[in-house]
Amino acid sequence: MDEPTCTLRIAPDVKLGERVKMHAFVNLYGCTIGDDTSIGTFVEIQKGASIGARCKISSHTFICEGVSLGDGVFVGHNVSFINDRYPRATNTDGSKQGEADWLCQQTVVADGASIGTGSTILGGLRIGAGAMIGAGSVVTRDVPPGAVVAGNPARPLADRSISP
Ligand SMILES: CC(C)(COP(=O)(O)OP(=O)(O)OC[C@H]1O[C@@H](n2cnc3c(N)ncnc32)[C@H](O)[C@@H]1OP(=O)(O)O)[C@@H](O)C(=O)NCCC(=O)NCCS
Questions:
Q1: pLDDT band at 74 (very low <50, low <70, confident <90, very high)
Q2: Is 139 helix (H, G, I), strand (E, B) or coil?
Q3: 19, 34, 117, 158: most buried, per Cβ within 10 A?
Q4: In a domain? residue 90
């Protein structure tokens, strides 16, 4: 029988907390992961991203540079964060863009917030503590603490909020 292959790719520069649980095909580099956080299959977390303690990151999610999650944040399956509002492959002279050619936007997801499956979070936003983002949302504006928002673009659901 073949030797089992390691399906985790954890770069040496990752700051990994205690008791972090990871499933197969996880790709982490240059990021920070807090204690007791779990990370599902096919999750990528880029350099400069920061994940708090006791977070749940579900499978197929992409967390890019510039994203900071507080403690106890839930991220559903197939959630994508964005950090470049006007992405281009090349500069005006036709050369391929590098690190210095674009501005990385910063996004903060505060403690206890939840992001529903299949959501897309635009860059430069703040999602408040305890907020709830509905499945399939496209979040284009800041979300207040405890708010329940859904849709494309995500808007508050009437008569619903959760104490942060
Ligand atoms: C947003 C959410 C929390 C709302 O739940 P709720 O308060 O029970 O809301 P309701 O089901 O009563 O729906 C209220 C209204 O919002 C709409 N709505 C609910 N969820 C929605 C969503 N994700 N996107 C768009 N509209 C949504 C409903 O159609 C309903 O509209 P109507 O009044 O015109 O009929 C929930 O629907 C949701 O999306 N949760 C995330 C689930 C998830 O991704 N889990 C992760 C992995 S299992």
A1: very high
A2: strand
A3: 34
A4: no
